[in-house]
Amino acid sequence: MWTAARVATLIGRKFHVSYSVSGATRLMHRLGFSPRVPVRRVAERDEEAVRVRKEATWAEVKGPGRPAGPTSASRTRQASPADRREAGPGADADTPRS
After folding, report:
1. Distance from the CA of 57 to the CA of which of 29, 38, 47, 91 falls in 20 to 30 A?
2. pLDDT for 72-98, tens place per residue?
3. What angle do CA 9, 11, 14 make, to 5 degrees?
4. Around 20, how many Cα atoms within 13 Å sit in the side-chain half-sphere?
């Protein structure tokens, strides 16, 4: 299958002109080309064997996932009970600053 990236590379090598991937896509559409995916199916395909193999492969790749439990809203630092103050924000508002 010819992708837009491959076409852009080919144009650059053949004609010494630089095209971006999106530029190559627009050029192909202007020339009447559209993306096509070849259909490759074996005539003697065993659907049951394919299903069993997909299930076995997916079980290996998937992994255990996240552990259940409390989470943090922070994407950069996990919550820690040691970092929490006893009182909430603004609890010391009555105390004058020095």
Report:
1. 38
2. 666 666 666 666 666 556 655 555 555
3. 105
4. 3
| Tokens describing residue 44 | 């003697």
CA–CA distance from 33 to each of 3, 4, 24, 73 (Å)? 11, 11, 11, 47
Amino acid at the residue 54: K
Per-residue HEC secondary structure of the chain comes to CCCHHHHHHHHHHHHCCCCCHHHHHHHHHHCCCCCCCCCCCCCCCCHHHHHHHHHHHHHHHHCCCCCCCCCCCCCCCCCCHHHCCCCCCCCCCCCCCC
CA distance 96 to 87: 17
- Model confidence, pTM: 0.37
